[in-house]
Amino acid sequence: MTGFAVGDVIRVAEPHYAYGAGTLTMHVAEVVSRGPRDGAVWAELRGRDVRPDGSLAPCERFASVRVDKVAVVRVPVR
Predict the structure, then answer these.
(1) Cβ neighbours of residue 78 under 8 Å, at least 6 residues apart?
(2) Beta-bridge partners for 26
(3) What does the pLDDT average to over 49-61?
(4) Angle at Cα 47 formed by Cα 45 and Cα 48, nearest 5°?
(5) What span, in angstroms and rounded, lies between the C-alpha atoms of 65 and 42?
(6) Phi/psi of residue 21, each to 5°?
(7) What's the chain's average pLDDT?
(8) Most C-beta atoms within 10 A of its C-beta, which of 9, 10, 12, 63?
(9) Three-class SS of residue 69?
(10) So which domain of life are we looking at (predicted)?
(11) Residue 27: in which H helix or E strand, if any?
(12) Looking at residues 60-76, what average pLDDT do you find?
């Protein structure tokens, strides 16, 4: 997958992912699929939210992200 991979921590602004409120910061566990939607390439991801202190949320979630709007960030995950 271009730009990010399993194991990366990504950040995506609210308008460029579904569904949630605020900026998404996620540790990627799986890239489920990817494909075109609304004129852009989107990826369906499975992972866990990264909290501001670097800890991982206890539950996994799914998120659809616009691939060209994803930033890989360096966050020490605990």
Answers:
(1) 53, 54, 55, 56
(2) 10, 49
(3) 95
(4) 145
(5) 5
(6) -125, 135
(7) 93
(8) 10
(9) helix
(10) Bacteria
(11) strand 24-37
(12) 94
In single-letter form, the type of residue at position 44 comes to E
In 3D space, the residue among 5, 29, 16 whose CA is nearest the CA of residue 65 turns out to be 16
- The distance of Cα 44 from the centroid of its chain, to the nearest Å, equals 9
Structure-token pair, residue 68: 């060209």
Closest CA to 61 of 34, 26, 10: 26
pLDDT digits (tens, 9 = 90+) for 6-28: 999 999 999 999 988 999 999 99
Q: Which two tokens stand for residue 29?
A: 């566990």
The residues spanned by each domain of the chain are: 9-73
The first and second tokens of residue 38, run together, are 């609304």
